[in-house]
Design brief:
Elements: E1 18-22, H1 26-34, E2 41-46, E3 50-52, H2 57-61, E4 71-73, H3 74-78, E5 84-88, E6 91-95, E7 100-103, E8 108-110, E9 113-116, E10 120-122, H4 130-133, H5 140-159, H6 163-169, E11 171-175, H7 179-199, E12 209-214, H8 225-237, E13 240-244, E14 248-252, E15 255-258, E16 261-264, E17 267-270, E18 274-276, E19 293-294, E20 307-309, E21 314-315, H9 328-344, E22 358-363, E23 366-370, E24 375-377, H10 379-392, H11 396-412, H12 425-428, H13 430-442
Parallel strand pairs: 1-2, 1-9, 2-5, 9-20, 11-12, 11-17, 12-13, 19-21
Antiparallel strand pairs: 3-4, 6-7, 7-8, 10-18, 14-15, 15-16, 22-23, 23-24
Length: 443
């Protein structure tokens, strides 16, 4: 790469191993921390400068929290470890033979061992152009984009001259009935109905419409049936219209096509499934199922030495031979396990996932928890959900800030992040979204 800055940090310069981690999410950060202050050199590479607590991203999108409440600069997260270097750069390839990671416009980084933890992205099933009209929830940019459109729709509805125009602007569509879709639908409904009754004079709560579209036979398909039914009943009680067996055929500016029906909406959110980031292409692989890289019991990429994959990027199997789910707790446990393994530099027992429960919050006082052998729903599940998510935040500062805001929001129902950017084009620019789509394809 002529003209680039050639970075070479490896054991060829000293006796210490050099481990490169691609991705600063749950898995990558857990792995890096487990390697902190050890006798190896670590370089963590991410195209963003911050980590993000994605399970609470929907609260940024619905004005309950600000982006800074659930994110932190990676350099701050890892700054205390003197053996860890952080690079903000985009990875474009891996040369497994020469043991080098290629960076866009920044040369190469050599490694002795490589960890790929690049996470996942939303699957638009061959319709990537839908992303501009129906953003998902994988980044702060997307959360702010949804919040901007949602709040602007209410402001435009206040100025609308016809009932039809008001109805369209006050309709929000959430595509996908998994945990993200359920959480978004419930949060939008509660936010909108409270705002309308309190702050808008030309609107009425019964004019608001939230539609949850699910192509399958039920929402929360990965949960037991009784929890799925509880969630559906609760959502319907707070005004969410659930449509099952409804497959979207087109998404355009301010509308969704379902079958022969066109539904106009002020805000559209995508939550209909994810796929692994295409890191498999860096390794010269044909695309595996779901894009997830096959790994063995110690998380090493099958057929390649000194390259590991964790989190949503990896196709790891449990003791029964079933793929582990793409969950934050899986990524974090894998990162901790792999960090300890690489720190010791010797053999270690195979990775075993310990399921600490799968959860989804539905609304105020309502959540579901599935622990496998037993389940929990309702107010107690909601309280447990809150405690778990506060505990999992990146540091004490974030835990205190989020806890205080949640208590205030619970007591007053106020949402303090209801800010509309003065220059809305910064959020909805087509070129910027197209650039993001291109980056996600290359990543």
């Amino acid at each position: 790469m002529s003209g680039g800055i050639r970075l070479r940090l490896s054991a060829s310069h000293n006796s210490r191993r050099h481990i490169v981690i691609i991705g600063g999410g749950f898995g990558g950060l857990a792995c890096a921390r487990a390697l902190g202050d050890s006798d190896v050199d670590v370089t963590l590479i991410d195209r963003r400068n911050h980590n993000l607590f994605q399970p609470l991203l929907y609260q940024v999108a619905t004005a309950a929290l600000s982006p800074a409440d659930i994110s932190e600069p990676i350099r701050r997260s890892l700054g205390r470890y003197r053996n860890i270097r952080v690079l903000m750069a985009e990875v474009v390839g891996v040369d497994s033979g020469a043991k080098r990671v290629r960076l866009a416009d920044a040369g190469e980084v050599a490694y002795d061992q490589l960890v790929i933890a690049t996470g996942s992205q939303y699957n638009y099933f061959g319709h990537d152009d839908w992303q501009f009209h129906a953003p998902g929830l994988k980044s702060i940019h997307e959360a702010r984009q949804i919040r901007q459109r949602l709040l602007l729709a209410f402001e435009k509805a206040e100025l609308a001259h016809t009932e039809r125009e008001k109805q369209s602007l006050l309709t929000s569509i959430v595509i996908g009935g998994g945990p993200t879709g359920v959480e978004m639908a419930g949060a939008i409904s509660e936010l909108g109905r409270y705002m309308i009754s309190r702050d808008y004079r030309a609107l009425a709560p019964n004019q608001m419409r939230v539609i949850l579209l699910e192509a399958g036979p039920g929402i929360l398909a990965s949960f037991p049936q009784h929890l799925s039914s509880y969630a559906a009943n609760y959502l319907q009680r707070i005004g969410v219209e659930i449509r099952l067996g409804q497959r979207v055929s087109a998404v355009g500016g301010g509308h969704v096509i379902v079958g022969d029906e066109r539904i106009d909406a002020g805000c559209i959110v995508w939550g209909a499934g994810v796929k692994a980031s295409p890191a498999f292409a860096w390794l010269g692989m044909k695309e595996p199922p779901g894009g997830r890289i096959p790994v063995d019991a110690d998380l090493q990429v099958v057929g390649l030495s000194d390259i590991y994959a964790i989190g949503d990027t990896a196709m790891a199997l449990d003791a029964e031979g079933k793929p582990l789910p793409a969950l934050a707790q899986v990524a974090k446990q894998q990162g901790e396990f792999l960090g300890r393994k690489l720190r010791k530099g010797g053999p270690q027992a195979s990775f075993r996932f310990r399921n600490r429960g799968n959860t989804a919050v539905i609304g105020r006082h309502a959540a579901v928890f599935d622990f496998g052998s037993w389940t929990l729903k309702g107010r107690l599940a909601w309280l447990l959900w809150a405690l778990v998510h506060v505990y999992l935040l990146v540091n004490l500062e974030k835990r205190v800030l989020v806890t205080i805001q949640w208590i205030w929001r619970y007591l007053t129902r106020q949402r303090g992040a209801r800010i509309i950017d003065e220059d809305a084009s910064l959020i909805g620019d087509q070129k910027d979204v197209s650039r993001m789509i291109g980056l996600s394809r290359r990543r």
